[in-house]
Every structure is written in C-alpha cells, then in structure tokens.
Specification:
Helix 1 packs antiparallel against helix 5, helix 1 runs parallel beside helix 7 and helix 1 packs antiparallel against helix 8. By secondary structure, this protein is mainly alpha-helical. The protein has a two-stranded antiparallel ribbon. It contains eight helices and two strands; from the N terminus they run H-H-H-H-H-E-E-H-H-H. It has a single domain, classed as Growth Hormone, Chain: A. The chain starts with 11 loop residues before the first helix and ends with a helix.
Length: about 270
C-alpha cells in the first residue's frame, strides 16, 4: 500500500520529535521543580484539587500559576499564527526557535531563580508546542497528552488485526511510535536530571534542534519532488501536443487525397 505524502510539519517522525520534547519537559519540571507538569495541565488540575483537599494552599498557588502561564503562552502563539497566516513552514521554524530560546533561558537562570519562575517559562514553552502543532498526517494530534493516542492505538490494533484492515495496522504502528517517543523523552530527562540538575532541560532543547534539522532537510526535498513532477507533466503535455498535431496532419492528408480522387473522377468524365 502506497503511503500518502504529508507536509513536513505533519510527518510521523517530526511528530515523534515533538512527543519526545513534551515528555522530556514534563519529566523535567516534575522531577526538578516541585512535582508540577509543564504541559499536562490535566495532571496539574488533579494535583491542585488534591492540595485543596489537604489544605496545602501554597501548592494550590503553584499549580494555578502553571495553568495561567500555559493559557498566556497559548494566547501569544495564537497571535503569532494570525501574524504569519498561511506561511505554515516559517511559523513552525519560529515556534521551534522560540521553544529552544526559552529552554536555554531556563538552563541559564533556574539555578538561582525560584521554582515558580522556571515552571512559568516551561509551561509557556509547552503551550507554544501544543498550540502550533495540532495535526499529524492530516489527523488531530497532541504531543503533550498520550491518553487519546493510547485509545487510538488500541482501537486500530483491534480493527487492524481482528478485521484485517491494513490501514488500521499502519495507523496503530504510527501511533505507537509517537507514544514510545513521549516515554523516551521522559526517560532521557529521568536519566539526566540527577546529573545535570537544572541544566537537564538542555536534553529536550537538543531534541528541538533535531526537529529543526528534520524540518530543514525534508523541506529542501519537497521542491525538488515538485519540480520533477512538473517536468513529467510538461513531457506528457508535449507528447499530447505532438500526437494532436500528427492527427491533424493525417486528417489534412486524408482530405487532400479525397479532393484529388474526386478531381480525377471528374476529369475522366
């Protein structure tokens, strides 16, 4: 089965980079900055409710700050989307560079800054990614939350292998790659946080550079493929024109022969 070609910012392995970045960010803030999630705001809401039930109001403010920062980060990227309008590739580069800059800033200041400042910056970073990259292979996508992806993978495993649907089998595999990438990003942060402490955010920052490199490489290939297609179409068009001219010439020859035949008959008469 031939696979459909998608824009580079919707391709599977680019989505895998995004999932790994998201997993790394959540693991980083959870392990190093007070048990709060950078992007998983559902988890923060749960922890907020639990803290309220225990009367831990300082923690309530901590989780609430992450929620508000995430919302503000979303609003900013929404403004950026209006500014860039239909230039999706340029916008993708901008958002990834923006994420990278925020991560480097966190690595530089988090050792001396309060945890709440770090959480705000990382929540804004996660919000940028979620707001901008919401489609994968022309379907809805979130790199920050795996609940829906696990449901999708399970459904397609059943459809693919019980009902022998090849397309569903492929979709289950693709979704599994995204889920595994998210876990892999969290694993990397879990490994490096004990060694690098606050600077461990540079691990997802390196993954952002990988995503930028992937965009650059595959964006270069697309125009070449387009040019090749256009050349092939031009060749087909030229052949069609030659065939049409040949048919017109043949028709003209037939008409001339017919006229000559009629003239010969009249001469004999």
């Amino acid at each position: 089965m031939r696979r459909q070609v998608y824009p580079v910012y919707q391709q599977l392995y680019f989505g895998a980079f995004l999932a790994a970045i998201a997993g790394g960010l959540d693991a980083y803030t959870y392990l190093e900055h007070g048990g709060v999630f950078a992007g998983l705001q559902t988890g923060n809401l749960i922890l907020l409710g639990v803290s309220l039930s225990k009367g831990q109001f300082a923690k309530v403010g901590y989780y609430l700050t992450a929620l508000i920062a995430f919302g503000l980060g979303t609003i900013f990227i929404r403004h950026v989307q209006h500014y860039f309008k239909q230039n999706y590739l340029k916008r993708a580069y901008f958002v990834l560079a923006y994420e990278f800059a925020l991560m480097v800033l966190v690595a530089m200041i988090s050792h001396n800054a309060p945890d709440v400042i770090t959480v705000i910056l990382v929540a804004i970073t996660a919000a940028a990614q979620l707001q901008e990259f919401r489609k994968l292979q022309d379907g809805p996508f979130t790199s920050l939350m795996m609940t829906g992806n696990i449901r999708t993978a399970s459904e397609n495993l059943y459809t693919g292998y019980v009902h022998h649907d090849v397309g569903a089998q492929q979709k289950a595999t693709d979704t599994g790659i995204v889920i595994g990438s998210f876990a892999g990003g969290a694993l990397l942060s879990g490994i490096f946080v004990p060694w690098l402490k606050d600077a461990a955010i540079l691990v997802p920052a390196v993954l952002v550079l990988g995503a930028i490199f992937y965009l650059a490489q595959h964006a270069k290939q697309r125009p070449q493929a387009k040019d090749a297609t256009e050349s092939e179409e031009s060749a087909v068009h030229s052949r069609t024109e030659r065939q049409a001219r040949h048919q017109d010439d043949s028709a003209s020859d037939d008409i001339e022969v017919t006229h000559e035949t009629r003239a010969g008959r009249r001469h004999k008469l």
